[in-house]
Amino acid sequence: MRRKQKSKYKSIITKRITRSLHKLGVTVLMVALFVPILTIRGTSAGFFDEEKSEENSVTAGILDGVATQTSFGYTTGSEPMEPGDAITQEVDFTNQGDLPFQYKVKYLKTDDGDLCEALTLTAKKNSTVVYDKLSLEDFDMGSIISPVPPVMVNSLILDPAESDDWTFVLELPADSSQTLEDETCEFNFKFTAWQTDFIDNSLGFWDEELADPSADGIEIKTGEWEGEGDVVINEIMWMGNSGNDNDEWIELRNMTNEDIDISNWNIVHGGSGVGGHIEIPSGYSIKASGYFLITKKKYDETAINLDGDLDKDEGYTHVSNMSLLQTGEDLILQNENNITIDTAWKNSTWPAGCNDKNGVCEGLYQSMEREDIPGDGTLSASWHTCISGNCNDGTYWDSADGNNYGTPGAANLSPVVMNEFVANSLGDDSAKKPGGEWIELFNISERKVDVSGWYFKNSQGEKIIISEDNARDTEIAGGKRLVVYLEEDFLDNDKDTLSFYNGMGMLEDIYKYEKASEFPEGKSFARFPDGVGIWIDPEATPGEENKLDKKEMRSFRFLAYEECFDGEKVDKKKKESVCNPVFLEFLGMIKNANDKTIDDDILLDILEMKKEKEEKKLAEMLKEIEKLIVGQIVLSDTNGPVGVSDLGGEIFLTESEDNDVGNSGEGEGKTEESEVTIGEKEGAKTNNPVIKEEDNNSTDLNNEW
Q1: Among 24, 186, 197, 357, which residue's beta carbon has the most beta carbons within 10 A?
Q2: What DSSP line would sit under 150-185, residue for residue?
Q3: DSSP assignment, residue 319?
Q4: Which residues share a beta bridge with 218?
Q5: Residue 55 has what pLDDT?
């Protein structure tokens, strides 16, 4: 029995434990289920559904403009570009995308040359002019003229597959300055396209294209072109000849070493009829350093010695409308672009040439010839009358030794010229040879010339006749010299006009000088180079080649550089005689008469001279200042200050008004206001002597400069 009771007790305990464990398990389960839920924050829940659409897509369009250069070349002229030339470029701009677009086209500079600034542009869109001969650099087509909605100038809008044909014509104006020679212009035309619904290319799709895709774009160059003085009117037979007053002719001379095309050039006032000009037809040219003859008569009608008609690079014959007034003309040579190349005289009496009608030529008809160094054609000094016997032979005329004088189609001849003379000789001007005054002649021709009976005249009308008494011989071989000793006081020591006449009494040469008395005795006037150059005043070299010593050469180079050059280039506008290309070549500053830049070694020497001159000036000024300061200190009281001031770049040493002079002795006094000035200052008082700086290195030059 007791065992059964014990089992019952255990059963109850077991049930209670089992029930408690069951409750605990349920509790743990509940906690396990709810704790994670309580840890989730902001969680929402609800019903949803998801569906997918089939075969939907989004596609971006293509904006693509393409510029294609279809042609490029000269419309007029040829490379290199010259004034009046034009270049044409054709460009096709196409919309090759699938979006319509608006676009603009503008000039794009790619270098720093000055030539681009001078070019003008005519632009055509689909054969319609939209920009007419305006500045290339200002070209910008397609700007917005109203922001909403955007409207393009000239409707620069292209739909897909459409295109615009652009034609660009670039011109160098006919009146362009010669400063544009040897220049380059590099540029391009830029096309910019963008979407039609935007005001510019800052939003949306856009594209940029160049008319020429090369790295530098379009390149245009200029060379050297005909300018003033390249061709001159060299000789004029304005009076006709002894047999026919209408047998007139004009000769041109090429002053360069290159052939020059003179097609469609004009001689204004040289003809009759409308415009009064002579026009040279197309296809004509002048040989390098050659001559070109224009005649009124046919080759077989003129008195000129012509076997047949002239080639087109030698002349233009039978110009029936030629008409030259006996009273003078204003002949203007112009190229095909109406640019003036040369002017011969002015509308007044001819400065040279002669015919029997004026009563002084004794039945002769003599042409008017330009000097070998042409100079300004409007000045009488640039012309002379053809008076040499060499101008009157069968070389030039059908009838040798007749009454016609001239050198048509050939170089002007003055076979013997004055080459050097001394007006103010060392010692007695009338001393016997080899002392006293003398004149040297030079034969510039290749033939021997006898000058016996030829003579000189001064401004007083006095004559010296050449003979074996005053010259070793009267014949001068080609390229040789002859010294004539005057043995009397013939030339004025200060100023005079020396004239030289041939045996027929015709003027061969003339020179006017001034201020000879300011030169040392024995100084000469001489041509440099011999026979053809300008007159200067070197040391005398009678009977010898005219030369300059090293010091004189450097002085003249320095002067010529100051007067004739702009940096390294010859300034063509300078008309001073020292700037004559023949003289510059003689000085070695240029290699030949057509060279435009100074020799590098000469330039370095000149720059060194400039430096030396400035240093010398500064040293002399400092030395004078030092002397003045010492002198002022000696003169002044030890308590009296010496004022030194720099006024406007000039140095003034001023003695103070309070300086006492003579402190010892009975009386004391003050000096009057005293000022010593270096240089010049307008209105400055100068009780003490003015000290002026003198440049002892300057070379005396005659008044012609």
Answers
A1: 186
A2: TEEGGG-EE-TT-EEEEEEEEE--TT--GGGTT-EE
A3: -
A4: 187
A5: 67
Token representation of residue 470: 């005053």
Report d(CA 576, CA 131) in Å as an integer: 45
**Residue 551 carries which side chain, given as an amino acid letter?**
K
* Residues near 165 by beta carbon (within 8 Å), at least 6 away in sequence: 90, 91, 92, 125, 126, 127
CB 345 within 8 A of CB 377: yes
| Per-residue model confidence as pLDDT tens digits over 675-694 | 333 333 333 333 333 333 34
Q: Please tell me what DSSP assigns to residue 397.
A: B
Q: Quick one: DSSP state of residue 11? A: H
CB 613, CB 604: distance < 8 Å: no
> What's the pTM?
0.52
Q: Which region holds residue 483: left if phi is over 0, alpha if psi is between -120 and 50, else beta?
A: beta
The CA distance from 657 to 199, in Å, is: 80
> Any idea which residue has 């004055």 for tokens?
418
Cα-Cα-Cα-Cα dihedral sign, residues 104, 108, 114, 115? negative
Structure tokens at 568: 């390294």
Give Dmax over CA atoms of the chain in angstroms: 199
| pLDDT for the residue numbered 149 | 56
Q: Where are the alpha helices (DSSP H) in 453-580?
A: 550-564
HSE toward the beta carbon, residue 617, CA cutoff 13 A? 13
Nearest of 410, 408, 436, 412 to residue 423 by alpha carbon: 436
Closest CA to 60 of 97, 21, 23, 108: 97
Mean pLDDT of the chain: 81
474-495 pLDDT, tens digit per residue, is 999 988 999 999 999 999 999 9
Dihedral over alpha carbons 527, 533, 538, 539 (to 10 degrees)? -50
Residue 30: half-sphere exposure toward Cβ, Cα within 13 Å: 6
Contact 489, 477 (CB under 8 A): no
- Gap between the Cα atoms of 502 and 366, Å rounded: 14
